[in-house]
Amino acid sequence: MGAKSTDTDFAHLRHRMVVDQLRARHLDDDRVLAAMEKVPRHLFVPETQRHAAYNDGPLPIGAGQTISQPYMVARMTELLRLSPTDRVLEIGTGSGYQAAILAELAGEVWTLERHADLADRAAELLLELGYTNVHVIICDGSLGLPEMAPFDAIVVTAAAPAVPDCLKAQLGFNGRMVIPVTSGHNEDLRLIERSAPLGQQDDVKNEKGLDSSFRETSILACTFVPLIGKEGYPQ
Ligand code: SAM
Predict the structure, then answer these.
(1) Strand, coil or helix: what is 219?
(2) For residue 34, what pLDDT is reported?
């Protein structure tokens, strides 16, 4: 892509991204694919990276951080099974791109970022693009956002040493959480699903104050930047 690339050029590349990187890898949730086809990913990367915005990989966004590979964004979003009224928490705003995708599919999105410069840039762009249902907050997202819980869905876009109990506690009944977790030298993307209690008898709390109705599934191997914070890795 040259310096004079137009919106039409980028729309064409975005369409190819959906067909070649997402549909071809069996992603088939039409709502997610429509969001990926709509959100202008090239605006979420630094100008020097625009030519590569629709390539099949992550890209640097400053502060030593990355915007995730389009496939990973779409796959994580698909796993969240979002409805238009859902309240969603994202941990790791980065460029704001994943937040925009979530905002296309859910009712309201809270997104947390520890780097103020990334958060400010993302908030400005999201507003410019008309995403008034996204709230960008600068904080240690490893603790979640208990004051706005419960959430229908939580997505963590940085790798944690373990699934933080405080995030599980902020997931509503029937909620879904997607989180990359490091185990040994590997990382895998996990889906945590919280089921609704059938009755009081299921509402049994364990010693951490969580009920026992969480199902954890390992989805695929992945590589993310680390989640830095109180419930993540030390700085
Ligand atoms: N979702 C992002 C996007 O669409 O561009 C990509 C996120 S990048 C892979 C991971 C982000 O998580 C980085 O911006 C990093 O600063 C952030 N992060 C790491 N630890 C964090 C924490 N404890 N709280 C909030 N953000 C954190």
Answers:
(1) strand
(2) 98
